[in-house]
Structures are given as structure tokens and as C-alpha cells.
Amino acid sequence: MTVFDRLDRRRTWTEDERIVLDQVRRLCNETIAPNAAAYDRSGEFPWPNIRAINALGLNGLFVPEAYGGTPMRYRLYLECVTAISEACASTGIIYATTFHGMGPLIEFGTDAQKARLLPRIAAGGLGALAITEPNAGSDATGMRTRFHPDGDSIIVDGGKILISNGDVADLLLLFGKWDGIDDPRAAISVLLLERPTPGLAVLRLEDKMGHRASSTAALAFEAMRVPRENLLGQPGQGLPILFASLNRSRPSIAAHALGIARAAFSDMVRYMNERRQSGRRIIDFQGNQFMLADLATELAMAEAWLDHVAAMVDDGETDFGIEASMAKLRASDLASHMADACVQMHGGYGYTSDFRAERLMRDAKVTQIWEGTNQVHRQLIGRSFSAREPGERR
Ligand SMILES: Cc1cc2nc3c(=O)[nH]c(=O)nc-3n(C[C@H](O)[C@H](O)[C@H](O)COP(=O)(O)OP(=O)(O)OC[C@H]3O[C@@H](n4cnc5c(N)ncnc54)[C@H](O)[C@@H]3O)c2cc1C
């Protein structure tokens, strides 16, 4: 039994949770992992994987019962994301993105909004979270998409880039600025965009380094009319809603990155035990053992930290933004380092598509970029220790 088995054994899953995990792991082993390389090569959206995930009712894990879900602990949702991402990072991010987009509706939506929109998600609909624009990435306050109130409607003009699930989502959480509010922070508002809506267009799908089977879309909105009842919160409440929702999506991004790290770790260990040079297995060279020891320790720490953050969420704590940033930062840096080491330990073969090491390396990179780049997370974490000066706004 390894340190990771012992870590897993201490996770006290209930019987129902164990059943869900067993089903997810079986699906991953039998269907999702064996097809991951082919989807990576073709870049096709993995609809059969999504249908299989929906057949297990996995969106229901985070949708309240009153709206068609069978909610379970956040830790279980995170473990499902890790398991699916370990098998296929593209499929993992497609599944997790629905949670990232719909979490704010669950947390901040009215009963009427939830009753109308959530059953579709519980039944397997896809969600998206649309924040980024050409001139507004790390600093979302630079967004230019406009929300113009017009009677019972909101007229939307503008566009978004790099939106995961943007072309396939049934429901998009869309951020923009409310006409008539001058302060760029206070103007940010958020609405629920249902597909189809006239005026919503997909401009292009990105040709990416990794996550090639997940879709990443540039969207345009031209005089797009959205019912006013689809506004989430009040005009100008977008930023607090955004921050609160990112706190829950960042551990989910960490869980996804940990899936890639786990895959790279297990492939690396397997190969190091098999491959012989100079009459010895390459795991027997001390320099390689030092490297493996550091990465295994990092993986154990990152997993344990995710358990900690999830326990905070499951216990109902609300102030966990820095913990979430730490989880995202550490897991994504680890995924990149682990995948890089995995390629290195496979030697020349690691650079070919004979092994999945090179795909894991391509898939890992973006985890350091999305949901706040790791530079931004380092700033958030560092700044949390800086004493506030009189009159300073954070
Ligand atoms: C595959 C993919 C999927 C994505 N999915 C989504 C999605 O579903 N929804 C969505 O809204 N967005 C999505 N994004 C966008 C992603 O969140 C942004 O790319 C990210 O936030 C960075 O913004 P940017 O690309 O504009 O980079 P910039 O903000 O321009 O940053 C460029 C560089 O400058 C650094 N930098 C910027 N500001 C600072 C600072 N204050 N201090 C130090 N360094 C700084 C950054 O760390 C980075 O290295 C996705 C991106 C990718 C690649």
C-alpha cells in the first residue's frame, strides 16, 4: 500500500459516495481513458463521454434536489473531476466547466431562475462561464461587453474570447457592464444566457496546444435581447458574484490539475520501474529517486490541501478564497512539473506520441493560466498578508 492509498483510505466516503466513485472510476477505466488519445488526435468534442457522464447523473452532484439534482459533498464532486481528468483532461474540463458556470446560479439565483433553468443542467445540460475578452483577461474590470436595459429586456453588445464550452453550452453565465454605471468595477453585472438566443454567434474555435478535445470559443453578441428576468442579482453585483463563484471553481480547477498530475506520476513510476539502462532500472539511480521523492511529496501535499479546502466548503465556511488560490496554484504548478518530469523519465520515447506523457505535458500547461494565472494567485496570496493602509480599498 502506498502513501496515496493510505491518503485515500482516510477519506471517509459514505456508501452512496463510494458507489458513485466506483461507477466513475469504472467509466474512466473502461471508456474515457482508452479513447483519450484518439480524441486528442482528432480534436473532436467527446460527446459519447459526456453522454456517459450524464447517464451517471454527475451534474446532479452539485444541483440541489429541489431542481432535479441528487447533491452530495463538494469533496465527492472534486474527486470525480480528478478521476475524469486523470483519464482525459479534455473531458474533465468540459464536466467541471458546467459546475463553474452554474455554481453562481445555484448560489445567487432566485427560486424562479433556479426552477426554470437548473433542471436542464441536472439532466445533463452543459454550462459555460464567460468573462474573458480581448482586452480583459487578468483584469476583468477592463471588459467592454455592454448590458443596456430596455424595458423587460437587456440588450447585449460585445464579445468574449477563450470560453470553454462556449459553442456547446446550453446555458452561459455572461459578464458585462451595465449602461449608466460609470465606475468600471461597480458596472460589472451578470446574466444567464440561454442557447439559442438570436444575436449570439460563435466566431471561431481555438486551435490549442492541449485539451484539444474540449472546445474553446470566441463569441460575439450583436443586439442580443435577453429577458430581464435572466439578470443574476442586481445591476452592478457582478464583481462580488464573480469573486464568490471563483472561490468554488478554483478548487475544482485544482482537482482537474491533480488528475493530470496523478496520471503523469503513475506513468512515470511505472516506466521508471520497467526501463533499464547500464544494467539497472532507472528508478534505482539516486538522482532520479530524489526527483521522484520531491514530486511524490508535492502530490501528497497538494491532495491533502484539497481535502482541507473541500472540508471547509462542506462545513459551510465562506471565507476560503486564499485557501482556494493556494490549491489552484500548487496543483497546477505540480501538474506542469510532474508532466515535464514524466516526459523526461521516458527519455526520447516521452517526446513521441507512443506514450501519453507528451499529451499530459501539453494538457498541464494551461492549468497555470486559466481561472487566474498563477502570477495573479501569487499576488492574491501575498497581498492577503499585507496590512491595510488607512483608506485603502481592496
Ligand atoms: C484553454 C483556455 C480556456 C479558457 N476558458 C475560459 C473560460 O471558460 N471563461 C473565461 O472567461 N476565460 C477562459 N479562459 C481565459 C483565461 O482565464 C485567461 O487567459 C487568463 O485569465 C489570462 O488572461 P489573458 O489571457 O488575457 O492574459 P493577460 O492577463 O494578458 O496576462 C498575460 C501575462 O501577464 C501576466 N500578468 C497579468 N496581470 C498581471 C499582474 N497583475 N501581475 C503579474 N503578472 C500579471 C499574466 O500572469 C500572464 O503571464 C481560458 C483560457 C484558455 C487558454
Offer a quick outline of the entry.
The chain is α+β, with helices and mostly antiparallel strands and 394 residues long. Helix content is 51%, strand content 15%.
How would you characterize the overall build of this protein?
Strands 1, 2, 3, 4, 5, 6, 7 and 8 form an 8-stranded mixed β-sheet that branches. The chain is α+β, with helices and mostly antiparallel strands and 394 residues long. The chain is built from 11 helices and 10 strands. The radius of gyration is 21 Å and the shape is globular. The chain has helices spanning 3-9, 15-42, 47-55, 74-87, 89-108, 111-122, 238-274, 286-314, 321-345, 357-365, 374-383, and strands at 127-130, 146-150, 153-164, 171-178, 188-194, 200-205, 216-227, 231-232, 276-277, 280-281. Helices cover 51% and strands 15% of the residues. Bound molecules: flavin-adenine dinucleotide. Flavin-adenine dinucleotide binds at residues 97, 129-132, 137-138, 162-164, 208, 211, 216, 366, 369-370, 372-373, 375-376, 379.
Percent range of helical residues:
40-55%
Low-confidence stretches are none
Main sheet, how many strands, which sense, barrel?
A: 8 strands, mixed
Structure class: alpha+beta
Tally of strands: 10
Structure ligands: flavin-adenine dinucleotide
Radius of gyration from the CA trace?
A: 21 Å
> Helices and strands, in N-to-C order?
HHHHHHEEEEEEEEHEEHHHH
Give the helix tally: 11
Q: Which of globular, elongated, flat, extended, rod-shaped describes the shape?
A: globular
Average pLDDT, to the nearest integer?
Answer: 97
Query: How far is the first residue's CA from the last residue's CA?
Result: 47 Å
Indicate the proportion of strand residues: 15-25%
